[in-house]
Amino acid sequence: MTDSQKTLPAAGSRKKPGILTRLARNKSGLALTEFAYALPIFTGLGMFGLETANLTLTSLRVSQAALNLSDNASRMGQAIANSTSRTVYESDVNQMLTGLGLQAGDIEILERGRVILSSLERNGDGGQWIHWQRCKGKANYQSDYGTEDTGATGTSFAGMGEAGNEVTASDGTAVMFVEIIYEHEPLFGDLFYQNKIIRHEAVFNIRDNRNLGAGVVADGEPAATCNLYTST
After folding, report:
1. Of 116, 115, 119, whose CA–CA distance to 87 is shortest?
2. Which of 18, 133, 144, 189 has its CA 20 to 30 A from that of 75?
3. Cα 39 to Cα 31, 44, 46, 75, distances in angstroms
4. CB of 75 within 8 A of CB of 210?
5. Residue-wise pLDDT tens for the chain (232 aa)?
6. Going by C-beta distance under 8 Å and a sequence separation of 6 or more, which residues neighbour residue 167?
7. CA 226 to CA 142: how far, in whole Å?
8. Other C-beta atoms lying within 10 Å of the C-beta of residue 7
């Protein structure tokens, strides 16, 4: 045998790779490891998306509740015999406010919020006047624009709404101005969002000829005055 010839190793004498080498080459658990790293990230993104969607949907529902109440209030009232105008009674207002709570459903708008319904009219001097105001809800908030009888005389009260863009009532009619203030609580505490105050307003002019001079007439039902903070 020459020097250039090599002796083949005996069968079964080849050295097996060590355990570390085998582990380094083994890729069977790679996908599971990647999933373990990615899961917290995607879970966090999913929770953030859910929280954002919940906030958006809640705000939309509060806005819709304000619109519905203002629209319904613009139609309320009962026609008295031999009269072409409608008179609003305390029971009419109570039905509107109770219906709002039922319509809002699981967001518990009367438990976590405040609903303010104002009748904006003209006073005897031609100025704007909050003739009457009714409220419901446990949250401690007042109207941003004044209480009942604000602007009863004179012309200094500009109306209700954003300064410079106030809503005003025309002579002989009234505007049903609704404010809803709602205390939104996030699903996951303050992980993504802090507690947020959602505020929406809605306005409808009354649809029928209404007995404005009478205001809201007592009929044995408790008046939902704005010094009360209840959901019932």
Report:
1. 119
2. 144
3. 12, 8, 10, 54
4. no
5. 555 555 555 555 566 666 777 666 666 666 677 777 777 887 888 889 999 999 999 999 999 999 999 999 999 987 766 567 899 999 999 999 999 999 888 899 999 999 999 999 999 999 999 999 999 999 999 999 999 999 999 999 999 999 999 999 999 999 999 999 999 999 888 888 889 999 999 999 999 899 999 999 999 999 999 999 999 8
6. 120, 159, 160, 161, 175, 177, 203
7. 8
8. 6
Write out pLDDT tens, residues 66-107. Answer: 999 999 999 998 776 656 789 999 999 999 999 999 988 889
User: Any idea what DSSP says for residue 169?
Assistant: P
Extract the tokens encoding 137. Answer: 């809800």
Decide: 205 and 198 in contact? Cβ < 8 Å.
Answer: no
| CA dist., res. 2 & res. 205, Å (int) | 113
The one-letter amino acid code at 192 reads F
Structure-derived torsion over alpha carbons of residues 166, 140, 228, 117, reported in degrees to the nearest 10? 20
